[in-house]
Amino acid sequence: MTKTIQKFSTCVGVGGMLTLIEHLFGTFDCSLEFLLTVIVLDYITGLMCGWYNHDLESNKATRGLFKKMFIFIYIIIAHRLDVMLKVDYIRIGVCYMYAVGEVLSIMENGTKLGLPVPTPIQKALKILNETVEISDDNVDNSNIDGKV
């Protein structure tokens, strides 16, 4: 009987955590999946470069991890703005914006290790970057004064 209660409690706990995550971040779609993937890959390739160049510092790695964690804070804010404004493009745009930056960082790490950047990745990034720039141009920032 206690094992059944334990299993039930575990299922309720996991289900509750997943519900909270989806509430905070929105649906786990390809934009969020891609961002999560490139964040992890960038962190790993950054550690590889630090080790390869004998420049691996825990403070530097921790700062990088904090920056990556802050990206997810922006994703939460973007999703909540989507919900509040009843739209579905703010979080996706923020995901792609940060994903492009992460991929550029991965490419930089690869070149530090002596690897050339594959042409198809360069072309895809150019297209994605142009898409993000176009969507940024369509945003009216005239009523934002930058003060909190």
Structural write-up:
By secondary structure, the protein is an all-alpha fold. The protein has one domain (28-137). The chain is 79% helix and 0% strand. It has five helices and no strands. The protein has helices at 2-25, 30-52, 58-85, 90-112, 119-137. The protein is globular and about 55 Å long. The N and C termini lie far apart (54 Å). The relative contact order is 0.10.
Distance between the termini: 54 Å
The Rg value, from CA coordinates, equals 19 Å
Total tally of structural domains: 1
Count every helix, treating DSSP H or I runs of 4 or more residues as helices: 5
Order of helices and strands: HHHHH
Mean pLDDT score: 83
**Shape call:** globular
The beta-strand count equals 0
Give a topology summary.
Blueprint: H1 2-25, H2 30-52, H3 58-85, H4 90-112, H5 119-137
Summarize the structure in short.
The protein is mostly helical. The protein has five helices and no strands.
